[in-house]
Amino acid sequence: MSAYQRWELNSFDEPVGANLPGAEDVSPVNLPTAEELELIQKQAYQEGYATGYHDGKTTAQTDAERIGQILRGLEEAMAQLDQQVAQEVGDLAIEIARKMISQALIVKPELILPIVRDAMNSLPVSGHHPHLLLNPEDAVLVRSYLETELSHLGYKIIDDIRIQRGGCRIENANTELDATMETRWKMIVAAIGREDGWLE
Fold first, then answer.
1. Rg of the chain over CA atoms, in angstroms?
2. Cα 200 from chain centroid?
3. pTM, full prediction
4. Alpha helices (runs of H) in 108-135, residue ranges in sequence order
């Protein structure tokens, strides 16, 4: 067995580890003062604020761009909806007009008379004897009201089942005037930029 060394209890006044080997090489620990702690806290706060401000600004810009995209998409959707609604309203208006005209001709068949007169006035005056083609039911009405006038102008009334009620066609050797419902309707809807046919 090797030699032993006697151990004695150190004094309580000596610093811990003072008698340990290498204790003389340990530097005393310098704790920061209250002013230094306050300065460290301020620097940390400023750095944190700057970082948070930058990150917040970047996030706000990203959010603003996202909101802008959403609003643009909403505007496009609204524009498409407006166009769709306008198209549907236009379709509805045309359908209502078509039904009203059809009903008006049934309730008041004498509406054919001003149509025939307008067609006659639109035809250039010529020495040829024109033919007035009418639906058989309209032809009965026109003969009872306008036969004398038509005879005086040399018109001959011809029944034509291919012509729908409310329209007529005038033909002579040189000219043909189409005042059928289909043709007149196409002219009306074309004036508002549509191509809806009379029978659809």
1. 51
2. 26
3. 0.54
4. 112-122
Going by their DSSP bridges, the two strands 156-159 and 168-171 should be labelled as unpaired
Domain regions of the chain by residue span? 43-107, 109-191
Topology annotation, domain 109-191: hypothetical protein PF0899 fold (3.30.2320)
3-state class percentages of the chain: helix first, strand second, coil last, to nearest 5: 60, 10, 30
DSSP code for 105: H
Tokens 């006697």 found at:
6
Query: What element of type H or E holds 156?
Result: strand 156-159
166: DSSP letter? T
Closest by alpha carbon to 150, among 165, 164, 139? Answer: 139
Strand 168-171 to 176-179 pairing: antiparallel
Average pLDDT, 10 consecutive residues per value, the chain (200 residues): 57 54 60 76 76 71 80 82 78 75 82 90 74 95 92 91 93 87 84 68
Q: How far apart are CA 25 and CA 20, in angstroms?
A: 11
**Token couple for 134:** 């009418």
Q: CB–CB of 133/163 below 8 Å?
A: yes
- Parallel/antiparallel/unpaired status of strands 131-134 and 156-159: parallel
